[in-house]
Amino acid sequence: MKKIINTNNAPAPIGPYNQAVLVGNNLFTSGQIAINPTTGALVLDTIENETKQVMENMKAVLAEAEMTFENVVKSTIFITNMNDFTKINAVYGSYFNSETAPARETVEVANLPKFVHVEISMIAIK
């Protein structure tokens, strides 16, 4: 049976989806973008701040499911400019212990919702 996970500490979905779905001990998150959940404004001033907002949103979704980044086993990063990879990776990496970091792929795409520069989704297991 699936359990829907939503929190006010991350941006509300902008379409027919939920922030995450918990199936047994497996959490499947929707992609998070850099929307400040308090103001609803996009955080796009720098790629570092944009990535940090994405990770903070993901942190809130994980917390709602009683998990942390230590529970993450797989993540996917979508970016619109591979030249930003190093900066995005530095912020992303600061949220994980490098010895227990999840599997991951990073994919450059033509565009993302609301014309942001980075979107991240994750799979976590309790």
Summarize the structure.
It contains 2 helices and 6 strands; from the N terminus they run E-E-E-H-E-H-E-E. With 126 residues, the chain is an alpha+beta fold. This is 2-iminobutanoate/2-iminopropanoate deaminase.
Structure commentary:
The chain is an alpha+beta fold and 126 residues long. The protein has one domain (2-121): 60s Ribosomal Protein L30, Chain: A. It has helices at 47-64, 85-93, and strands spanning 2-5, 20-23, 26-29, 72-79, 103-108, 118-125. It has a 6-stranded mixed sheet, with helices on one face. Helix 1 (47-64) packs parallel to helix 2. Pfam families: Ribonuc_L-PSP. One of its GO terms (molecular function) is deaminase activity.
Assign the CATH architecture. 2-Layer Sandwich
Rough outline: globular
C-alpha end-to-end distance: 16 Å
- Individual helix count: 2
> Taking strands numbered 1, 2, ... along the chain, how are they ordered across the largest sheet?
1-2-3-6-4-5
Keywords:
2 helices, alpha+beta, 60s Ribosomal Protein L30, Chain: A, 126 residues, RutC-like_sf, single chain
Topology, pairings included?
Layout: E1 2-5, E2 20-23, E3 26-29, H1 47-64, E4 72-79, H2 85-93, E5 103-108, E6 118-125
Parallel strand pairs: 4-5
Antiparallel strand pairs: 1-2, 2-3, 3-6, 4-6
Helix pairs in contact: 1-2
